[in-house]
Amino acid sequence: MTGGGKGDLPAAFICTHLTPVSALFDLPPVAPDGFRYQPDLVTPEEEEDLAQRLETLPFEPFLFRGYEGRRRVISFGLRYDFNGPGLVTAPPMPDWLLPVRDRAAALAGLPGEAFAHVLINEYREGAPIGWHRDRPVFEKVVGVSLLAQTIMRFRRRDGARFQRINVPLEPRSAYLLDGPARTDWEHSLPEAKARRFSITFRNLRG
Ligand SMILES: O=C(O)CCC(=O)C(=O)O
To answer: Suppose 122 and one of 62, 72, 75, 158 were both cysteines; which one would form an S-S bond, judging by CB atoms 3.0 to 4.6 Å apart?
Structure first.
C-alpha cells in the first residue's frame, strides 16, 4: 500500500481502522458495529458470468412456516429449512462459486472452506425481504450483491422506539454482518426496484 492520504485506503480498511466522522461530531453512525462493506468484490465481467449461471439454477419460492415470500432462493452445502427440520444437507457448492466464496471469506477473516453454506436470493422487481436476524446456528454472514442497487435497513430496539440505520448496497459489492450488526440489529431490504441477486455465505457457530 502506498503512503498517500485516506483516499488511497480500501473502503474495508477505512471502516475498521479510522474513527467514524459520526463519532467525532455526534452524528448517527453510518453502519452498525460489526458491519463491513467492500465495494467491487467482483468485476463487471464476473458479475455478468455469475448472473448467467444463476439464471440456470432451479430457484424456488422462499417458504417460512406456511408463508410464501416473493423472493426465490436456492442453497448449497447446507440449507436451512424453516418449515421443520432446520439445518439439512444441500447439493455441494458449484465450482464456479468458489472464487467468490474465497473472497467473501477473506472479508470475514475466515478460510473459504469455513463457509459451509450459501443461500442465493433472487429478488424480482417488487420482492422485499422482511425484518429478521439470521438463525443463531450461523455465525458470520457475507452477502455479495449482483445487478441492482438496494438499501440494507437496520433497526434495533431503543426503549419504546427503534434506532434505525440505512446502508446502500451497490452491485458487485459485499457486506459482512458480524458482532452487533449480526446479533443485536435486525435487517431488511425494501421491495426491489429491479432484479437483484444476493449470494450470502455463512459459517456455522463453533
Ligand atoms: O439480499 C441480501 O443481501 C440480504 C439477504 C438476507 O438478509 C438473508 O438472506 O437473510
So the answer is: 72
> 3-state DSSP call for residue 24?
helix
User: Using CA atoms, how far apart are residues 15 and 36, in angstroms rounded to an integer?
Assistant: 6
Domain covering 10-15+22-204: architecture? Sandwich (2.60)
Indicate whether this model's pTM tops 0.90: no
- Cα radius of gyration (the chain): 17
* Ligand 1 probe mutation, 135, 141, 178, most atoms within 8 A of CB: 141
**CA 112 – ligand 1 centroid, Å:** 19
Task: Kindly give the distance from the C-alpha atom of residue 95 to the centroid of ligand 1, in angstroms, as a whole number.
Answer: 22
**What are 72-111's pLDDT values in tens digits?**
999 999 999 998 889 999 999 999 999 999 999 999 999 9
The pLDDT tens digits of the residues spanning 174-189 come to 999 999 999 999 999 9
Question: How many other CB atoms sit within 10 Å of the CB of residue 99?
Answer: 13
Residue 142 CA to ligand 1 center (angstroms) comes to 9
